[in-house]
Description:
This protein has 21 helices and six strands. By secondary structure, the protein is mainly α. The protein has three domains: 31-134, Fumarase C, Chain B, domain 1 (Orthogonal Bundle); 141-221 and 267-306 and 321-387, Fumarase C, Chain A, domain 2; 401-465, Ribonucleotide Reductase Protein R1, domain 1, CATH 1.10.40. The longest helix is centred in the N-terminal third of the chain and has 38 residues, at 141-178.
Amino acid sequence: MNLTDITPAIALTPLDGRYHSATAPLVEYLSEPALNRERMRVEVEWMILLANGFDGNGNKPVVDGVQPFSEEEIAFLRAIPENFGAEGIARHAAHEAVTHHDVKAVEYYIDDQIDLAAGELGADTKLNDRIKTLVHFACTSEDINNLSIARCVKNAMEKVWTPAFKAIVDHLAGKAEEYRDMPLLSLTHGQPATPTTLGKELAVYVYRLNRQLKHIESQEYLGKINGATGTFGAHLAACPDVDWIAVSREFVTNRMGLTWNPLTTQIESHDWQAELYSTVSHANRIMHNLCVDVWMYISRGVFAQVPVKGATGSSTMPHKVNPIRFENAEANFEISCSLLDTLSATLVESRWQRDLTDSTTQRNIGSALGYSLLALHNLLGGLGSIHPNAHVIEHELDTNWEVLGEPIQTAMRACELRGLPGMDKPYEKVKELMRGHEIGKEDVERFIDQQSFDPETAARLKALTPATYTGVASKLVDFAR
């Protein structure tokens, strides 16, 4: 049997198959039907503006010869996209099969709905064959597309991706606070180094991710409605007495909720998209770094994983609890970044006034954000299944007293600067004691006693242990927010 013969159709990508439950919320905003629904919203709102004019001008139509719509007629038009479901998707597809043009199919779909208005609103409704001329009036397809895509992406970011991203940041912030005082052996270049606290290390990620969150939350979403080459040429030819620049600004800003772009070719230049996708990609990479760090902490034993009842870690080694959530997140962040980087690099280019490369490219926005959303889902699940292993953490600190070489040699430098004798070449003296040797508390104290420290400095250094040599790490957690 051919798998292609099975209905409903089998998903080609894992986003719509294996991982559908994690990525389904994006379908509401970034799927093909979601885009077509948004196109319908743009089209009907443009009709309403043209027929009813600006607020406060006495409902004077923008286009002469059009009578303002009643509240019932406006409600009927706005219900067209709201009621766009399985039957509507099929009807739109039937139109597109003939037109081979998705936006023209939207226009014809709206015409079909206007045909039903008389039956619902009465024979004298202004929603009749004549008013169909107002559908897509003076518009090029890109007028509708750029606004629809901007609104789809804006909604997807604000209602799905950003809340999932914030959940990661909030979780990390909570753990940073909880473990702010828990000492942890650092590894620089993979070697034991100045201790820190687990909370401070998590707070580093909170701070990094919050910076990206601020960029995302302040992101502009631009839109335009100005005709085939951005000149309002057809608008003026049809209605020369209308201030089309003002109409365009009103529609994009107040009706569509976007930032008005006054200067474009046929397309809105997509710079805002490049900015957004670059920021999301950057955030992805920070979280990828987090996944790798946590994976290595698990491998080192610093984090222990909570086994999932009934889950299999390895098909042959029953003892294993694999950090698969972090590995899955890593991989999906990488795929997302590859798509987002491609979108950022290619969408900002267009041949003269228009080519269609961006049309195909933008159909992958859902996949780009979908893989990121899937990674966020995996990462949050992974973070929720780990906890610090206090025994391992304490053992690492207690077996690496050599990390106190740094504070001792630095204190010797300070003493030499104050004129204390015998404090020359402090780095070399400490290196001789500590480098390549296993030492303990007694060795450190003996070395301190052999130097000519003043009593206060000697006592301060003797009081240090790898677990207490964390500087102001716990206080630094406060800067994460």
